[in-house]
Design a protein that fits this description.
single chain, alpha/beta, 5-stranded parallel β-sheet, 14 helices, about 55% helix
């Protein structure tokens, strides 16, 4: 491009966007190049978190919000203006530029949208933590909740997640995963206020990260595992060392649904290689126990199997009532 070309004569406007989820000052190299080469750098938000770092790097920033017409007029003659976008994205400016470009009556400068920083995977979790923090502080209901008071919601949300999975509804699955995640973040926020043993969502995440790394030596260490069975062996072996349990029944929550409880006990017994006969008593409960053990040995989740059968029964009831699917 030479100095007499139409593009050079009309100049260039760069809209520089940044992510509040990335530490201020951590900008891409193309962004720094654009900032240093600009004839003028503008930002409508004097409190923008990037401004101190830009000025520290020697970039002069005008705290101004010119109209689209004013910015186009400034760039006439080949000047370059970089606009550091605010959190709202400067819609008045971008809408104005779009209107001028669409009119066909204005010689427009080259327009460029330049992302200066990108969100890493999981970055939106920071938004969730911030939102939860504000809700905990300002919402009359949320500010009064306790771990015990929220316990029932954790159970409900877990069941709704299972239902979404079994229904194969992708939209519901995404929503229910969010509801389960909310429970984690909510409990972690409450835990920060404990006077004796506080912990935060970072402690929760740090704990599970350490656990995953330790229990996957075939991924993060020198161990080898080529089959799912070998992976499970690694997991159980490292878990046993961590927990130092004296019985295979330790750590099994007795409050879970009865079929799931029976299957979990059966799985622990089978994995440990124990020979434990079923109780010799008679009755429906012991019959169900035997069925649950048989299902687990066959690789069938008895809880899911019964739930599937119950849903089929529900559909039969609806059909008998004259309802259509």
């Amino acid at each position: 491009m030479n100095a007499t070309s139409p593009e050079a004569a009309t100049g260039r406007i760069v809209l520089l966007t940044t992510s509040h989820r990335v530490a201020p000052g951590l900008l891409s190299w193309p962004a720094w190049q654009a900032l240093h080469a600009a004839d003028r750098v503008l930002c409508a938000d004097g409190a923008h978190p990037q401004l101190p770092y830009l000025r520290e790097a020697g970039t002069a920033v005008d705290e101004a919000s010119p109209s689209a017409e004013e910015l186009v007029a400034y760039c006439a003659g080949g000047r370059t203006a970089v606009v550091v976008a605010t959190g709202e994205g400067d819609p008045a400016l971008t809408d104005g530029l779009a209107r001028l470009a669409g009119s066909g009556r204005t010689a427009m400068p080259e327009l460029e949208l330049l992302p200066a920083s990108y969100d890493l995977p999981g970055a939106r979790l920071l938004d969730l933590v911030q939102v939860m923090d504000r809700i905990r502080a300002e919402c009359p209901w949320s500010s009064q909740q306790t771990h015990k008071g929220l316990a029932k919601y954790g159970i409900e949300e877990a069941y709704e997640l299972v239902e979404a999975i079994e229904d194969g509804d992708r939209d519901e699955l995404r929503e229910e995963l969010g509801d389960v995640l909310l429970q984690v973040v909510f409990h972690a926020r409450i835990a920060e206020e404990d006077p004796d043993a506080p912990f935060s969502v970072d402690d929760v995440a740090g704990g599970i990260v350490a656990k995953l790394i330790h229990r996957h030596p075939h991924v993060f260490g020198d161990a080898t595992a080529t089959t799912p069975e070998e992976v499970k062996e690694h997991w159980l072996r490292t878990k046993a060392v961590e927990k130092r349990r004296t019985s295979v029944t330790e750590g099994i929550p007795l409050g879970q649904p009865a079929l799931a409880l029976a299957a979990k006990l059966s799985s622990r017994v089978r994995t440990a290689g124990l020979d434990v006969p079923l109780p010799g008593a008679h009755g429906i409960g012991y019959d169900l126990l035997a069925l649950a053990v048989r299902a687990e040995e066959a690789g069938v989740d008895p809880e899911a199997a019964l739930r599937s059968a119950a849903r089929a029964y529900r559909d039969a009831v609806l059909a008998a009532e004259g309802h259509t699917a």
